[in-house]
Write a structure and sequence with these properties.
CATH superfamily of the largest domain: PurM-like C-terminal domain
Number of strands: 14
CATH architecture of the largest domain: Alpha-Beta Complex
CATH class of the largest domain: Alpha Beta
Strand content: 15-25%
Helix content: 25-40%
Order of helices and strands: HEEEHHEHEEEHEEHHEHEHHEHEE
Shape: globular
Structural class: alpha+beta
Radius of gyration: 23 Å
Distance between the termini: 74 Å
Length: about 350
């Protein structure tokens, strides 16, 4: 092995591309945002090796079940990078996690995040954490910790990705799901804020690769630029869903993410029953029509990839519909009855059928 030349400087972590000082600066900048995403049960502050949550708060439960979920944001992060907008993508991350938790009726308690970057730009990392903290506040959960990792050589200096994990709690005898659903139940759809955080590989291929559109293109149908539409944060439904469980009987929720409405709703439909969803009860937002037209995408392909304007489904007894809709309206959530639960027959071989055409 050859010896280093005389006077040559030794290798350092910084010369390998990792800037510890920049990481420390990012932590300082994000502290003010993390303080806003807390709950009374959080013990200590940011900076420890682990986040602490006072579990004695669970003593009020007869049999508390902890629910956990983890997710990311997918290729939507590339649009945030290209636009130089970093303070919204965290809300997408929170929505993807907490709205999976609430499907079983669990109250989200806390989250942790993982941010991987090619190079730490403190202000950029702090902006991402700001979005995560704002999302946690909207979800009623705490952000108890996280990790920022710098991966020079693996990621480009401007590249990054985010992931998160969340924990919630639900009383054992109040767990929601397929076993509660009955014939005659109503399927209530809650409007999405747009594409949310799924299907962006298709959207990017269609709008950028095929149609040649740019992010700063003004789109009259959208009333804003394409980039602004595509970065619209995922709607967070957790507190709305929990409000429903307090005001009326709910049998199940379904978070409409990758796979679309039919595939996600099917996950909570028991074998003996069938959900009929009527497209004519709503009009998908204009962004869905743009993707369809720009890429000549078939409806079936759109429906198994995008949420088509519905971000969450609640399955409730028929007698609970009026209260459920009123509760959601009071919370500013546009919702409507989109279908019903019937007995499964040979005519309805699958768990969910979509009928009719979307309202124009």
């Amino acid at each position: 092995m050859s010896e280093p030349s005389p006077g040559a400087a030794g290798s350092t972590y910084a010369s390998a591309g990792v800037d510890i000082e920049a990481g420390d600066r990012a932590v300082e900048l994000m502290k003010e945002w993390v303080k806003k995403a807390t709950r009374p049960e959080v013990v200590g502050g940011l900076g420890g090796f682990a986040g602490l949550f006072d579990a004695s708060a669970l003593k009020r439960y007869e049999r508390p079940l902890l629910a956990s979920a983890t997710d990311g944001v997918g290729t939507k992060v590339d649009l945030a990078r290209r636009m130089g907008v970093y303070d919204t993508i965290g809300r997408d991350l929170v929505g993807m996690v907490v709205d999976d938790l609430v499907v079983c009726g669990a109250e989200p308690l806390f989250m942790t995040d993982y941010i991987c970057v090619g190079k730490v730009y403190p202000e950029r990392v702090a902006a991402i954490v700001k979005g995560i903290a704002e999302g946690c506040a909207l979800a009623g959960c705490a952000l108890v910790g996280g990790e920022t990792a710098e991966h020079p050589g693996l990621l480009g200096a401007d590249e990054f990705d985010v992931a998160g994990a969340g924990t919630g709690v639900v009383e054992a005898d109040r767990v929601l799901g397929a076993d509660r659903i009955r014939t005659g139940d109503a399927v209530i759809a809650m409007e999405s804020s747009g594409l949310h955080s799924n299907g962006y590989s298709l959207v990017r291929h269609v709008l950028f690769d095929r149609a040649g559109w740019s992010l700063d293109r003004e789109v009259p149908e959208l009333g804003r630029t394409l980039g602004e539409e595509l970065l619209e944060p995922t709607r967070i439904y957790s507190l709305d869903c929990l409000a429903l469980t307090r005001t009326t009987e709910v049998h199940a929720f379904s978070h409409i993410t990758g796979g679309g409405l039919a595939n996600n709703l099917a996950r909570v439909i028991p074998d003996r029953l069938h959900a009929v969803v009527d497209r004519s009860t709503w009009t998908p937002g204009p962004v869905f029509g743009l993707v369809k037209a720009a890429g000549s995408v078939e409806r079936a392909e759109l429906e198994k990839t995008l949420n088509m304007g519905v971000g969450m489904i609640a399955v409730v007894p028929g007698e609970s519909v009026d209260v459920a809709l009123a509760t959601l309206a009071d919370r500013g959530v546009d919702a409507w009855v989109s279908g019903e639960i019937v007995e499964r027959t040979t005519e309805h071989a699958e768990a969910v059928s979509m009928i009719g055409d979307y309202a124009s």
